[in-house]
């Protein structure tokens, strides 16, 4: 039978668990007593494994910071540092607001708010707005292009029925084939028309399907590495659309000159996509060691017909983004020469 204290602790744990701010509790030796899920997510560590370890097990701690924390404990004072640059032990760099509060039990409560996270969310919102505007523009253009194309094709068919000369009919066939080709191109620019047929699926079945398709292409010059988190729960999604989205990203990596592509998955807590916050999401990373994305193209990379390759159609990334958006998710990327990573975030629940 739970005691009132047990209920209170459970309620506190629930409240801390839904906080978007990373919270860490340190003892007077600067060892970790507690991390909430936001802190686990920020530093990509497990609370179960890291509790009891020194604070320096998650962050590279300078002597100055170490001294400030010990002084705070000794003098029972709190302090705030704005826009502090932190480096996690996994090498991830971040800019944070760092608040230190002393407790009545000679402990330190660290509140860490990532500043560049706000920039990421603002960029995502801008990206989603731009995507919606681009799709509306494309729909309008498609309507204006497809209507006269239909008339053109119908007129060519009528003309062909009136022609007796077989050689002249070849010209009407050319008109009809080109009209069909242009109509198909416009349809591809618009992306899939069908609503997603969602059902419970395992995301690793999607990734394995993509892996088998790439292997079947027999490109031995490229090493495709898989790093999966088997604990990810099933999600409600259209597997065909997700296969197409992931395949487009993997093919984009293959065409970048990479000889090593890593396909990885993991669960991510407290994820903000656009203006909505989700407690849990699936994260799929497709990273490669190719030449990277040209700096001038980064802002338009998800627009249709934008490509850095002469033989490219510029539709693969646009279609992938559209399919993931239909699952309330988003595709982000970071890129520099020799290291590019596309990330698919798919919420595991409604906001």
From TrEMBL:
All copies of domain Histidine kinase, residue ranges: 140-350
State the reactions this protein catalyses. ATP + protein L-histidine = ADP + protein N-phospho-L-histidine
Spell out the CDD domains in the cross-references: HisKA (cd00082)
Gene3D superfamilies xref list? 1.10.287.130, Histidine kinase-like ATPase, C-terminal domain, PAS domain
Q: What are the EC numbers?
A: 2.7.13.3
Q: Does the keyword Disulfide bond apply?
A: no
InterPro entries assigned to the protein according to its UniProt record, in alphabetical order = HATPase_C_sf, HATPase_dom, His_kinase_dom, HisK_dim/P_dom, HisK_dim/P_sf, PAS, PAS-like_dom_sf, Sig_transdc_His_kin-like_C
The answer to whether the entry has keyword Nucleotide-binding is yes
Keyword annotations from UniProtKB, A to Z: ATP-binding, Kinase, Nitrogen fixation, Nucleotide-binding, Phosphoprotein, Transferase, Two-component regulatory system
Example GO molecular function: ATP binding
A Pfam family recorded for this sequence: HisKA
Quote the function comment for this protein. Member of the two-component regulatory system NtrB/NtrC, which controls expression of the nitrogen-regulated (ntr) genes in response to nitrogen limitation. Under conditions of nitrogen limitation, NtrB autophosphorylates and transfers the phosphoryl group to NtrC. In the presence of nitrogen, acts as a phosphatase that dephosphorylates and inactivates NtrC.
Which NCBIfam families does the record cross-reference, listed alphabetically? PRK11073.1
Q: Which PANTHER family match?
A: SENSOR HISTIDINE KINASE, SENSORY HISTIDINE KINASE_PHOSPHATASE NTRB
- Its recorded name reads Sensory histidine kinase/phosphatase NtrB
Source organism per entry reads Thiogranum longum
